[in-house]
Amino acid sequence: MGTGGRSGLRPGKGNAEGVTAGKGKTHEATVTSTTAPSASCQYRCIECNQEAKELYRDYNHGVLKITICKSCQKPVDKYIEYDPVIILINAILCKAQAYRHILFNTKINMHGKLCVFCLLCEAYLRWWQLQDSSRNIDPDDFIRYAKEWDFYRMFAIASLEQTAYFIGIFTFLWIERPIKVKEKVNFTLLLKALLLSSYGKLLLIPAVIWEHDYTPLCLRLIKVFVLTSNFQAIRVTLNINRKLTFLAILSGLLVESTMVYFFQRMEWAVGSDCAIYKSQDF
């Protein structure tokens, strides 16, 4: 989520690798960049969310100058000079500027891999809880550790629950689009934003490593952090108000909870994050 920086920017005009603020007499230099990006490749000002044709301007003799936004008179993207660690910290703090930099002004194609990795961690945690709740404690029973089908089932259920969550968000935004959202909703970009903003699920990795040290409270806190990141990603991507974003998140949780309830009624799996330890009460 926070691996933008100098190496993650889009190629061509606006690539800020090695960017430094321009110094000297810029009126005597000539601009080397000649082509503007297409409409589908517009950048965004991280401060006011206005479209920008470039992030910086390249002059002769290696002099680069960050572009100033015509709307807010601030640098279009100050993060092009920042270290990726600083960008990551700002993203963890859910700053809208950091999210705009990552979603609009960088080219990150790791959302698919990140999603699969998070689902694998979540599936393993659920699978371990399912095996741990078994009453068969024979140390020689290696069969219960070799139930690959149960792990695949946990992975499929976790994937379906996340899909239901996204469907709930998309359905709500599609219904409210004629009233609240003036521009056409780019669901592809929104999906990428939701997948990238779910990076908080990586905190499940310690749960996989130190299994017994994780509590339901920790899992709930991880869930709240992921929802907060999703909230900011939706608001930044669609440029909508907090109320509409909150209702979209709530709709997604409602559809996801319906899916979880269905699985619990069918006794197919251990519940989701909020009910993952439910089997231990029996």
From TrEMBL:
Domain of life: Eukaryota
Record flagged with keyword Transport: yes
Biological processes, Gene Ontology terms: intracellular sterol transport; regulation of plasma membrane sterol distribution; sphingolipid metabolic process; sterol metabolic process
InterPro entries: Arv1 (IPR007290)
Spans traversing the lipid bilayer: 151-175, 187-208, 244-263
Location(s), subcellular: Endoplasmic reticulum membrane
Region (Disordered): 1-31
Main location: endoplasmic reticulum
Family (UniProt): Belongs to the ARV1 family.
Protein name: Protein ARV
Taxonomic path: Eukaryota, Metazoa, Chordata, Craniata, Vertebrata
